[in-house]
Amino acid sequence: MSAFVLGIDIGGTGSRAALAEVDATWDLSVVATMTGPGVEISAAGSNVLDIASGLISSAQKTWGGRLDQIAGVGIGATGIASLSEDPTSVIAEISGRAGAPAAAAIDAVTAHLGALGGRGGAVTVLGTGAISIAHPGPDEHGIMSPDWARTDGWGHLFGDRGGGAWLGRRSLELALRTHDGVDPSGRSLLESATRLFGSPATWPSQFYTRDNRAGLLADFAVEVAALSDSGDTVATGLLREAGVEAARSALAAANSLDSPLRIALTGGLVRAGDALVSGFRDEAARLHTGVIIEEPAGDPLAGSVRLGVLAAEGKLRAQNSVLWM
């Protein structure tokens, strides 16, 4: 009889669940997926755990009997460490509902597991936010030790350097400098932002009062990418700066890893253009001679499925503020 693993990936602009069939050797293939809402942040904190529970309920309704054969559940989520209640009790509840081991981790862990396929190295994730994480890889018994080293992921007010909200905020700041007559170089950014958001005088009320302001800022990153594609050198420079920040964070996270060092860049913002990726590659090579830059083997949803497999195999170890079981 086949067994299944459920993977859940929750981000700032949306969430996804994947049902994967696994065989006796734990090889897997995704057989079904579904989508859900993104994280919202308010004075009460993040709704990330509510989204996870909701996706579990939807999966049980949609995928029916196959959920009776679940071997493990893996959840990767943004903001789960700093903006939500202690996930431990919720993970226990999910494990009980699934009748199988469950694990939850910050989204960087599942991005790492997806991008590097469970091998050692460092990964920077550029989505709405930005975070980097490094791990030496499984030990001789295949166990992922609690040695995850994180850099950034401080949110759109204090960090997330190179992420979509960071890029959107940097671009809107330059647009407003142009509006104020301080710096004329952001003319294209100002015109694009005005088309999207209206008069600059309305921007504070649009952004400061929104629970999902990080997502709204990240929306403007799409416009920056479009301007870069059309040849705007200022937009291209901002994208390159995002890539440089991503590389610096990756190398900082990987500070304790042995050479040769393997790193990867992943997340939705990577699709913004070549300038971002080249900035990442050039800065990484400058900072670390001989660094190996890899194309991601899979995305964070694939990493969430792999987290579920590791939970099912008993090869995970909990780590405070990083991974819960």
Task: Explain how this protein is built.
With 325 residues, the chain is of the alpha/beta class. It is 42% helix and 21% strand. It contains ten helices and 13 strands. The strands form three sheets. The protein has a six-stranded mixed β-sheet. A five-stranded mixed β-sheet has the order 10-9-8-11-12, sandwiched between helices. It has a two-stranded antiparallel ribbon with strand order 4-5. A hairpin with a 5-residue loop joins strand 2 and strand 3 (28-36). Helix 4 runs antiparallel to helix 8 (233-253). The chain starts with a strand and ends with a strand. The model has no long low-confidence stretch (mean pLDDT 87).
What is the gist of this entry?
The protein has 325 residues and is of the alpha/beta class. It has helices at 48-63, 88-98, 107-116, 164-179, 187-197, 203-208, 213-229, 233-253, 274-287, 300-313, and strands at 3-10, 15-22, 28-36, 41-42, 45-46, 70-77, 102-106, 121-126, 130-135, 149-152, 262-266, 292-294, 323-324.
